[in-house]
Amino acid sequence: MRSVAGQVFLLQSVIMVLFAAAAGGALVVQARESSTQEARQLSKGVAQSFARAPGTLDAMKSGDPTELLQPRAEDARKNTGVDYVVTFDPQGFRWTHPDPKLIGKHIYAVREGGAADRPFTKTFEGSLGLAVDTTVPVYDTNGITIVGFVSVGVTVASVDDVVMDQLPQLLGFAGGALAVAAGGTALVSWRLRRQTRGLDPSEMTRMYEHHDAVLHAVREGVLIVGSDGRLLLANDEARRLLNLPADAEERRFTDLGLEAGTAELLGAGRPATDVVHLAGDRLLAVNVRPVDPDDHTAGSVATLRDTTELRALAGRAEVARERLGLLYEAGVRIGTTLDVVRTAQELAEVAVPRFADTATVDLLDPILRGAVSAGPGPQMRRVAVHGVDGARSLYPVGELIRFVPSSPAAVGAERGRAVLDVDLTAPGGWMSAQDPERARRVLDLGFHSLITVPLQARGVVLGMASFWRSTGPPFGREDLAFAEELAARAAVAVDNARRFTREHTLAESLQRSLLPGSLPDHAAVEVAHRYLPALEGVGGDWFDVIPLPGARVALVVGDVVGHGLHAAATMGRLRTAVHNFSALDLPPDELLGHLDELVARMDSDENGERDHESVAGATCLYAVYDPASGMCCLSRSGHPEPALVHPDGTVEYLRVPGSPPLGLGGAEPFETAEVSLSEGSRLVFYTDGLVEDRERGIDTGLEALRHALAGARRSPEETCQDVLDALLPARSSDDIALLVARTRLLDPSRVAEWEVPGDPAVVAGIRADVTGRLRVWGLEELAFTTELIVSELVTNAIRYGIGPIRLRVLRDGDSLICEVADGSSTSPHLRRAAITDEGGRGLFLVARFARRWGTRYMARGKVIWTEQSTRSPEAEPEEVSADALLEQWEDAAW
């Protein structure tokens, strides 16, 4: 084992033994895991199949489950190859077992480690060895009550047989590989002895030392060239002078990328003595001699000496060329995004390693927020660090740095000029202007030269860029000028990013201030919402939930196409207009019609006053939900169709008739769709930014939304989060607004309705019925005022309205709502009554004792409604003076 071949053979033997041991261990582990996995799958499949098999549920609910289940369990055990199929009741008493003696016995620790309402699989070591047991609950037809459990166990197969079958193959493979390694070692040893011509190791060592000295120690280039013009050997100096590639040996000089004259001189093999030749930017003295003067096929030896006296000048020219290229690269790479931090990082990445070993960028805090700095200050925040061997800096990214007043950064920011420190270790210079502890740490990192340049644009200092060197020559005056030029270009990009950040922040603040901060709690729906602005800029997406009379609620989502302040401001105007139109209690189609006219007028006014982007492209979806009837009326203008998630978890997109976007001046009227919603249904309103982007079509997005919404028993908040987790793109190019509303129905016991005949004589009976209903609701204190309101509204409907006439009273939270509907489209209004008028003051009494009142028009007729508070008793009529009542307002004609 003293020879190299013997040592290699020993190493190979050890590797093969370790490989065989590792392979054997892996084989054992793999066999055990495979057997266990097969047992888990088999037990789980049999347990679920038996639990869901027809007749299992009926047998468990029968009077004698054992009689029905025991034969089936034994058949299943024998046919599937499992070890046991056991069924037991929720209290843990067995109905079936392979051993009849254990039937009726209690099972202990059946569900240890698992929940009783879900299938559970566990592995344990029993009398038969390693086994896997799966327990599956059987639910009643209601899907809630657990009737019993099915437990199936499978014993894991032994891995010894598998290992013994494959172990001979493994050992045979290892022995064969070892034999091949031994043969290869012997062959290599024989070839080495042949190629070294039987030289003694000491002679080989001496020859290698001489060869190594020529290759690495000699400061003169040496080349050995074959008779066919191929390079056989080149030392380090020759490689440096000619800039040869690493694989230059055995290649012709014409293939090495050398100039034609240089390749001809060195590869031709003709003798030469001190021939001065220009190779690239170097002047070389070349000597060429044949290896054997008597044998021209032996090749030649060439020596090279660098004799140029213009080396320094050529170096400066090369540096200038690289600096010009670096400035061009900086113009291309810096400012690719409108992000302040990313622009600073690009500056540091451009400067390293071609100009400095490490670059740091510090910015004033107001610049990061997009604000304008009042001037250079002593504190800046580090936003970028980049170095050739990592981020070598004392201060990490994100830390707020307070500079010493005499430091280069503070002096440069104050004067607005770059500061050069050629030698950081020189006494009385940079060392004395720094905090001693920090200066020592910086020097410990190996930095010896520094340039600090203020980043200023439009006469304002934005921050500082520092360039550090730890290797190579120190910075000079030429480097100072280049650093200033590089920082000036970067400062313009940083300022552009700052201005964009400021505008983006203003637009986002404006939009968030115009969006609802929180949605009102409403008895009709449970709502959740999300709004995510686009990364490129805020847009005009918005949503709202507006309470309406009669316990109803309006759900609205809109989108103004475009980004920036104009889109956000337009969105605020549209949201305010929707609130105003909703106060008139208009149907969805009429509301969108008024909104369309408003957008067209806004667009016309803006284009007439100045050259401004139009509002065309605004969309809206408006829905009104009535919890008393469960009906939802929807209308849309250019907006995606809403999704409806039924209580059972199925999803459909509501076919709401579509209309062009708002403001396009379409002649066709808006249409509505009515749908009856079950309690617990979820209405999902969204904008197109959720389902469509540059990489995903709208059809693909809608299908992905359908899958994300599918599933029952999820709250609106959970639904919103699941949708965003599934569909939110990495970089959103458009705003996203999402509104999820889960519907509720009013308890029928809280709604009372009466058909009113057209005879004034029935008013007294109607009042009595209403009083009785208030007594059932525990609202006796509102009986007097409610009788007065109902009496006035019903009487006026009989006198001035058109049949059919209906009265409906609802109790919604802390409100009592009275509604009188008739077939007339005329609406009452208040006016001043004369002193001599005998009547006409009923509507004033209604307005006086109701918290709110109003009129709602339907397809045929209208509804006069009032709303009273149930929190405190209303004022009694006798508490108001008669003169005050007589001098107030009266009804107009109906």
From TrEMBL:
UniProt-listed GO biological process terms: phosphorelay signal transduction system
Main location: membrane
Residue ranges occupied by any GAF domain in the UniProt entry: 362-504
Keyword Membrane: yes
GO annotation, cellular component aspect: plasma membrane
Compartments where located: Cell membrane
Statement: the UniProt record of this protein carries the keyword Repeat: no
InterPro entries, A to Z: Bact_Sigma-Reg, GAF, GAF-like_dom_sf, HATPase_C_sf, HATPase_dom, PAS-like_dom_sf, PPM-type-like_dom_sf, PPM-type_phosphatase-like_dom
One Gene Ontology term of the molecular function aspect: phosphatase activity
Membrane topology: Multi-pass membrane protein
Keywords: ATP-binding, Cell membrane, Hydrolase, Kinase, Membrane, Nucleotide-binding, Phosphoprotein, Transferase, Transmembrane, Transmembrane helix, Two-component regulatory system
Residue span(s) of domain PPM-type phosphatase: 522-743
SMART domains: GAF, PP2C_SIG
Name of the protein in question: Serine phosphatase RsbU (Regulator of sigma subunit)/PAS domain-containing protein
Organism annotation: Streptomyces collinus
